[in-house]
Write a structure and sequence with these properties.
Belongs to the MAF1 family. It is built from nine helices and seven strands, in the order E-H-E-E-H-H-H-E-H-H-H-E-E-E-H-H. With 224 residues, the protein is α+β, with helices and mostly antiparallel strands. The chain has a single domain, classed as Repressor of RNA polymerase III transcription  Maf1 (Protein Transport Mog1p, Chain A, 3-Layer(aba) Sandwich). Strands 1, 2, 3, 4, 5, 6 and 7 form a seven-stranded antiparallel sheet that branches. A hairpin with a 3-residue loop joins strand 2 and strand 3. Helix 2 crosses helix 3.
Length: 224
């Protein structure tokens, strides 16, 4: 996997680096990768393939309706391996399991992504319009993604791991989303993670006991 640099993505990344909205901060990051194996990727992809095949052998013996049926297709296994390799490049210190990751990936439509983005990134979109005018943040994102991976030809996946398997999780996270846009023909993947963090937690207001103690002292002086 090779990291690809694209100016249209950089513009959005600069805007979403740390968008302070008072009590909350919006963060977002787009990363593009070419699905060309390096030496390390080749060894890792073989290991992931063996892990998946071993899992398939066990699950299909015990449950004919297993969701692992999705992985019977070689092209589906290949797509999963590329997605997991992307995760490895994003978080090189984290050990991802292909089988476990498979349980957290869900194929989505552009309309589903659009609905989530417009709902949760409403304030960020408003800030974008006030800063740049012209095309909306979503329109700019669409054009940038289309330039890199040709969106009409893409498969879109969301990645929603549990808290124990989430390398994206940050302190004070109110919500977070992780999407992957994969073009089989171009052999490219773009990851897009965006989240909302509480500035109160980051600054210690919600985790520092002294804040609550001070509030308690105020009530101690009042007749209840």
């Amino acid at each position: 996997m090779k990291f690809l640099e694209y100016t249209p993505l950089d513009r959005i990344n600069d805007f979403l680096d740390h968008l302070n909205l008072g009590e909350r901060t919006i963060k977002g990051c787009l990363e593009a990768y070419s699905c060309k194996h390096t030496g390390t990727d080749k060894r890792l992809s073989i290991s992931l393939e063996h892990e998946i095949l071993d899992y398939l052998g066990k699950s299909l013996d015990t449950d004919s309706s297993s969701p692992a049926e999705f992985l019977l297709s070689r092209s589906s296994r290949k797509a999963l391996i590329y997605l997991v390799l992307t995760l490895y490049h994003m978080y090189p210190d984290y050990d991802f399991s292909a089988v476990k990751a498979h349980q957290f990936f869900t194929e989505e439509s552009w309309n589903t992504f659009k609905q989530i983005f417009e709902t949760y990134m409403f304030e960020a979109s408003k800030e974008w319009s006030e800063t740049y005018g012209g095309s909306s943040l979503l329109e700019t994102l669409y054009k940038a993604l289309d330039e890199v991976v040709k969106l009409p030809e893409c498969e879109i996946y969301s990645y929603n791991p549990d808290s124990d398997s989430d390398p994206f999780l940050e302190k004070g996270a109110i919500w977070s989303f992780n999407f992957f846009f994969y073009n089989r023909k171009l052999k490219r993947v773009v990851s897009f993670r965006f989240s909302c963090l509480s500035n109160l937690v980051a600054e210690g207001f919600l985790v520092n006991g002294s804040t609550y103690e001070e509030d308690g002292e105020i009530f101690d002086d009042m007749d209840m």
